[in-house]
Amino acid sequence: MSLTEQIRKIIGFEQEAAPTPRGKILAVAARKGGVGKTTTTVNLAVAMARYHGLDVLMVDMDGQGHVAEALSAVVRDQGGASLSDVMLSSGREVRRVDDLMDIVVQTSEPRLWATPSDKGLAVTEGIMAGMIGREFLLRNVMRKAAARFDVIIFDCPPNVGNLTLNAMVASSHVLVPCDMSILSMAAVGDIIGVIDTVNEQLGHDLEVLGVLPVRVDRRNGKLTDQILKELSDNWGERLLSSRIPANSSLARAQVSGVSVFDFDSRSAGARAYRNLAAEVLGRMGFRGVDAPAGRKFQKS
Question: Domain 19-294 in CATH: superfamily?
Answer without folding.
Answer: P-loop containing nucleotide triphosphate hydrolases (3.40.50.300)
